[in-house]
């Protein structure tokens, strides 16, 4: 959990401070969380597969082509981390309570759901940091006017550290809360979880991800449909070529 | 009077600090505090007296907003302007402020479409495409896609963005006298067009790959018409809700995703 908290803090800082290396993209956070977690040797394979699924679906859903200033304040940086962590730790503890076909898809769904809720609730954490920054501004003005450059720097580094600490604390707390909720809820609804239902919701999320991708890559752009068609054709041709070449 | 100059290590420190330019973002000043913080190494060099340094710091804490990846260019150019002022050239506060705005606004206007609107979605999309295209794990081996796909996302974005970050301050410092030529030389609009096309190409590939793998749940796709409809229904349901939701409420992917999840769960449990 300490590693998850540190990862969450680093990703929040990446997004908040403006590093903009794209570490805070859901697919990156989810996969890194999967690499950091080790639920046990018997789960090693799923511990690497579930993050891929959670990261891919969250990436598609949360990819937004609108400017950050035009978006609602959500904590999408830690969504992949929290979702993946809860899914993997939940899988290791609750696999006997939810023994269904498509079990892998179930844990991916749980990871995505937790990630989305975490992103929504994490918006309040982001707002907390912003409100503290406004208080810092008043102090920074006084320090600058007095020529206290060193104190100004300390104040700024303090804000940077706060962004990290708030993100780390949120990643840790959200994971614990969501895991506790999962431990209570999943055994009670496990009988209703069938492969057909899981597959249905999973496919619906992929459909929503494709729609989000349309808005991000196609909608409102001139003369891009031929590029979409070209990409689709290339993918089909490559698939056919690779399938023919496969043993 | 000895001429004071901003040194190379000051510019390097400014480059490193430009990574934190919006750590204390506020609606009133946007990146103003971050700009002053990043410019501080140069200001210290140019204004050794406490009072002068305080005035310079206050001056640069005013409203400032540009794209964070391109903030280095404004920082470098402003450092050059401050250097000339510190060496006695008649440059007043208003001129420096006006210069900052004249560079920051077009950089934001050109940087946002490139970095936020096209390159960021493209880098994520390539990570997702990597999952679909790269071979999965052998039955017992580790699934290397968990490492390769995020790296694909990071490399795609940073291959374009990192040079702007690394060389931004130095280029801004060198080109402070020719801001128009600097803006033109970055070719940001051309980059945006190319990346937008690459995004559309990748999206087309993703659509095709999803269409080629339609066997959700049942694994019986193609056996009969009914199973095909059963496979397509949730996909279409999610796509319709997602499309309509994001069209109605752009920028609310989280809420729309939760809405799709809830609607699909209700539908799956009721049918």
Question: Care to describe what's here?
Answer:
The complex is a heterodimer of chains A (247) and B (271). Chain A is mainly α and 247 residues long. Chain A is 78% helix and 0% strand. The longest helix of chain A is centred in the middle third of the chain and has 43 residues, at 103-145. The mean pLDDT of chain A is 85. Chain B starts with 7 loop residues before the first helix and ends with a helix. Chain B is elongated, with a radius of gyration of 25 Å. Chain B is mainly alpha-helical. Chains A and B meet through helix 1, helix 2, helix 3, helix 5 and helix 6 of A and helix 2, helix 3, helix 5, helix 6 and helix 8 of B.
Map the helices and strands.
The complex is a heterodimer of chains A (247) and B (271).
Chain A: H1 2-17, H2 26-36, H3 44-62, H4 76-94, H5 103-145, H6 149-189, H7 195-217, H8 225-245
Chain B: H1 8-18, H2 32-46, H3 50-60, H4 71-86, H5 93-133, H6 145-174, H7 179-186, H8 188-212, H9 225-248, H10 253-270
Helix pairs in contact in B: 1-2, 1-4, 1-6, 2-3, 2-4, 4-5, 4-6, 5-6, 5-8, 9-10
Number of separate strands of chain A: 0
The average pLDDT of chain B is: 86
The number of distinct helices of chain A, counting runs of at least 4 residues, comes to 8
Distance between the termini of chain B: 86 Å
Fraction of residues in β-strands of chain A: under 5%
Q: Briefly note the structural class of the backbone of chain A.
A: mainly alpha
> What is the SS-derived class of chain B?
mainly alpha
| Oligomerization | heterodimer
Estimate the mean pLDDT confidence of chain A: 85
Overall number of strands of chain B: 0
Percent helix of chain A: over 70%
N/C terminus separation of chain A = 43 Å
Helix content of chain B: over 70%
Contiguous low-pLDDT stretches of chain A (5 residues minimum) are none
For the biggest sheet of chain B, the summary is: none
Radius of gyration of chain B: 25 Å
